[in-house]
Amino acid sequence: MRTIKVGLLGLGTVGSGVLRILTNNQAKITQTAGCQLEPAKALVRNPAKHAAAAEQIQLVTDFGEIANDQSIALVVEAMGGIHPAKEYITALLQAKKSVETANKDLIASCGPELVRLARDNGVALRYEASVAGGIPILNTLAQSFAGDEITQVAGIVNGTTNYILTQMAQQHSSFAAALKQAQQLGFAEADPTNDVTGKDAAFKMVILTKFAFGTDVKIADFNYQGIEDVQAFDVEQAADLGYVIKLVGISRKQNGEIFVEVAPTLVPQTSQLAQVNNEYNAVAIESMAVGRSFFYGPGAGSLPTANSIVSDLIAEASAAHPTSFNKLDCQLPLAGPAEVVDPYYLSLLAGTKTTELALAQLVTEQKLETTNLQAIGDAAGHHLILTTKPMSRLAVDKFIKAAQAVKISVDAAYKILE
Amino acid sequence: MRTIKVGLLGLGTVGSGVLRILTNNQAKITQTAGCQLEPAKALVRNPAKHAAAAEQIQLVTDFGEIANDQSIALVVEAMGGIHPAKEYITALLQAKKSVETANKDLIASCGPELVRLARDNGVALRYEASVAGGIPILNTLAQSFAGDEITQVAGIVNGTTNYILTQMAQQHSSFAAALKQAQQLGFAEADPTNDVTGKDAAFKMVILTKFAFGTDVKIADFNYQGIEDVQAFDVEQAADLGYVIKLVGISRKQNGEIFVEVAPTLVPQTSQLAQVNNEYNAVAIESMAVGRSFFYGPGAGSLPTANSIVSDLIAEASAAHPTSFNKLDCQLPLAGPAEVVDPYYLSLLAGTKTTELALAQLVTEQKLETTNLQAIGDAAGHHLILTTKPMSRLAVDKFIKAAQAVKISVDAAYKILE
What we know:
The structure is a homodimer. With about 425 residues, the first copy, chain A, is an alpha/beta fold. Chain A folds into three domains: about 5-135 and about 305-320, NAD(P)-binding Rossmann-like Domain (Rossmann fold, 3-Layer(aba) Sandwich); about 135-295, Dihydrodipicolinate Reductase, domain 2 (2-Layer Sandwich), CATH 3.30.360.10; about 340-415, ACT domain (Alpha-Beta Plaits, 2-Layer Sandwich), CATH 3.30.70. Chain A is built from 14 helices and 18 strands. The first copy, chain A, has helices at about 15-25, 25-35, 65, 85-95, 105-120, 135-145, 160-170, 175-185, 195, 200-215, 230-240, 300-320, 355-365, 395-405, and strands spanning about 5-10, 35-45, 60, 70-75, 100, 125, 150-155, 225, 245-255, 255-270, 280-285, 290-300, 340, 345-350, 370-380, 380-390, 390, 410-415. The longest helix of chain A is centred in the N-terminal third of the chain and has 17 residues, at about 105-120. The first copy, chain A, starts with a strand and ends with a strand. Chains A and B meet through helix 1, helix 2, helix 6, strand 12 and helix 12 of A and helix 1, helix 2, helix 6, strand 12 and helix 12 of B.
């Protein structure tokens, strides 16, 4: 039986998970890959910290020991971050080694360039684990939807924010309290900026957009919004209306254009996205042939992420030749902010000095088409909670400006995804 | 660009869907397959009935015109049934053509034999569409879980029975009324025997068991039970206890043995399986690395099923050599009826002549460990609804016999899947 030697860059959460699966599930992997996958060398900074792993893999501190080792054919990049991951992957592809990675920041930022480099060198670059950790969504899009026309991908693709929003909805916590709890339980990092600002989810939507529609976008090309400003008040109002607030990434094809957005979004309590709680992720697909389908699983974690990487290793090892992870390429224009309409949830607040009447007048004067209207008075002033008929983000922004002109603040303006 | 000619056996619901996708989505398919897939010839009984299709594909009435056509490399079998599908597929594989099929009856009955024949002839046999129509569950198990150790697969894999049970739960219909409605709406066939008896779901569990665990089982090897005897009364009692009754197929690995069963099962209302309504299907997987994951989509229908077949065609067309659909082979023994324990829901009925006391006595004497007990009296007599601690099917059957001995009937004994 053929043996393929595997190199690992990093033995942290993900890298150690890959080593554990390759070691523990060797018999099944050998059968499904059609060859033995042998963990050969792992690049680590401090070998003393990884004494236990040293029984299963040779620890090296010099990248060259992997890059220049002709016997290593596949390398897992499990360091994260852009640098030096990008330089290392570049060197590995140029050395004709196929690379498997979970690095969404890198793939979202430099994916097309690295994919081209892999192709030019006759090797492969796979990154199933980069989106929704343990859910095999990229393989599913690339293979099972290879003949279908996708119209929308909607995903809860960040576990940290989903954990926080779940706690806010179920325990009536504030954002700050839920974030603190998530950090204590290890579901949020000490610096949660990339998660709570929606940037991490935006990276993942870049990759999903490429796999669903073939179009390369950058996070600078579309609007992404985090959950820092989501108020316990709006979580409760949404619940009263039959909705749950989730951080949803949308990639939609409409009239030959692509619309991408990440934003707090109201989903019906009875929808499957609403049932995705805590650190779990899910992706809902709408397509012409299949219709509605839905894929759910853990969004992160050592072994789920490692399993996706191992499935990439097996796919590569069992292919007769290095194969392209995604063959779809179709550069569609991005839809403008006036072209896409959705219903919205708006939370208006007039200070104590402004009357309820002013709120009603504003809605009438701006010809806002509402489907539900509810006035609530409390110490903060007069609230008006309303849901609208489908309108564009441009129209929403115009309304927010008109409200500010009469001293009414729009505290929340969230899309409703039915 | 290379062109691969495709033959079709049958132009019914599924066959016409395949032709439609190959025609309508040609541009994307050409890109993802890396070659053109050209619908070449379709075998039909009555060409006059398919005049519209004749513009897209050559209609033939003689199987030999496809089997002996050297230019046709891939053939879709979309006739269904065991004969002559088996003889046709055998002839095609021997003629070195790869075959794609949705035929679960055939694969569940003769899969190992046909897979061997394909391998011996250096061609492939793929059947993604044979389980859960539009959900790419077989590819997912074969590829994305190729390095993981699965412990349980639980699926709602029959759309007809799920439609009927959904109507019973939501509209409080009887089984007979819901079946009639399903037939009128086209969700059940005129002869629904294979669906309502659980046989169709059992066929699918045979295939899922092979993909999850590598073990070949036959439907004669395990217990399958349908929904004909599910009473509106029990659907309501289950709802009161927080459960929904679904026809669930289970394949579980436990102490190195495999347990397979299809039976009406109580799932918690808050579970994802409970949210699978009407004709939809879903498969929930539990595995060592990923943990819990869940896959949902349409279980049947022309285009969803056809999409799975087209994904098989694309996989085969884009592979350098014919590839094995499933490489896992691991023949584990089947667990006996005493070895697998689950909590149960039991509905006991003592006729009007028997007292409530007799019910309580029976439970005590048989040392049944209950977690919930509720007595209901009505015209039919004294009911006792109870849920038990985990017990084996053997122990349940023993209890049913003891009950009968004192003239108490056990009207329902359904597993609870938490």
